[in-house]
Fold this protein.
Amino acid sequence: MNILALDTSNQTMGVAVISNGKVIGEYMTTVKNNHSVRLMPAIDQVMKDTQLKPNDLDRIVVAKGPGSYTGVRIGLSTAKTMAWTLNIPIVAVSSLEVVAYQWPSFNQLICPFFDARRGLVYTGLYQTDEHGRLQLLKPETNTLFEDWLMDLAKEKKATVFLSQDLEVHRSLIEQHMGDLAIFPDSPYHLPRPALLGLAGATREPDNVHTLTPNYLRLVEAEAKWLEEQEKRKNA
């Protein structure tokens, strides 16, 4: 089975090709250039390097968010278009879950997160079991990070924090978690598209027509519109 994995949901843009469980090509950048401009050339290059043609692909795996609204849409729309055109299955995986896969140890809790501004983060709590399977312990959410950390501290367990936005929140994490907080070296914070592809290799496919982004919260414009409609209703 040949799998193409795509992730443009956050700052890292990643493309990988997995063939029969083996990673044969992978491309990653963490620059802030426009993903919409660089994604298709990256796909083309990885496919050429691995000597595969589009018709050789059997499955597409894509990160579905949360993260950058624009980034999530770029990756998902590209993946859906390719899957529909090639008539192959598509599987969508949580962007937070992809980050959590970076840490394989089952001795600690794993807390991936993305900064969502104004003290908010997208986050969830994971742990790898003794069989190497990643388990979701607390549902992914968009929440005030301080509230999340206060609850997490009550667990009194060593917790690995994984995020490209770690330095924005490091002091707050240390304040609430103290010595229980584990901060791996920088490479562990970057979501590898190869791990995304492997995560989606055996999952049931999504419906290409109904698959939608997982924003975890309304986009700001939509939230303001709903708020305005509610005010008018109550006027």
Remarks:
- The chain is about 35% helix and 25% strand.
- Confidence is low (pLDDT under 50) at residues 219-223.
- Residues 2-95+191-216 form a domain with the Nucleotidyltransferase; domain 5 fold (CATH 3.30.420.40).
- The radius of gyration is 18 Å.
